[in-house]
Design goal:
7 helices, 5 strands, alpha+beta
Length: 215
Amino acid sequence: MDLATVDKLLTSTRVVRKRLDFTRPVEKEVIEQCLEIAIQAPTGGNSQGWHFIVVTDADKRARIGELYRESFYIYARSSNEQAATQGKGELYEKQQARVVKSAVYLAQHMAEAPVMVIPCINGRVESESPMTQAGQYGSILPATWSLMLALRARGLGSAWTTLHLRYEEQVADLLGIPSHITQAALLPIAYFTGDDFRPAKRPPATTVTSWNGWK
């Protein structure tokens, strides 16, 4: 494998918000290609119980965008209250300031994304054991990440969001999602503006790694 290309893809696939090009159409064929790649991801017990809802209808995107925006502002108020009591360092604070600005932008423009994808998985696990819950979400999240990587390789950006789940039932009614299906995320998808992305500034992995026990 060309490790330089692989490493660049893995370290520069970002959550894209302000750089999504809402004016440029996204071809159906590109989404289909990326989904074919995504379903090569592993699943618990090789269950393959995934389903991807691709939303391009303008009215449905508008309604999902409205629900997302409402949920975002509820979340933002709660986060601001928590942030006032926490201090996590200068680097974290600077990064968060940028994240907040871009998150607000996405909340205001979510409905303009030409494509939305809602990754789903068969079954409900709210009342199940941590092991069962981990297996359930572990059977859809790898495929969703693979989708984001495939999109990135083709010049498209996406943002992993979950705030619409505050109104999961309303979205399910809108899209006809059966009650036994779990929605895992909401990805707004569009071509991105600018030339490229860089790796994020992170503390060294050694600061969050323990060998043979928690330290």
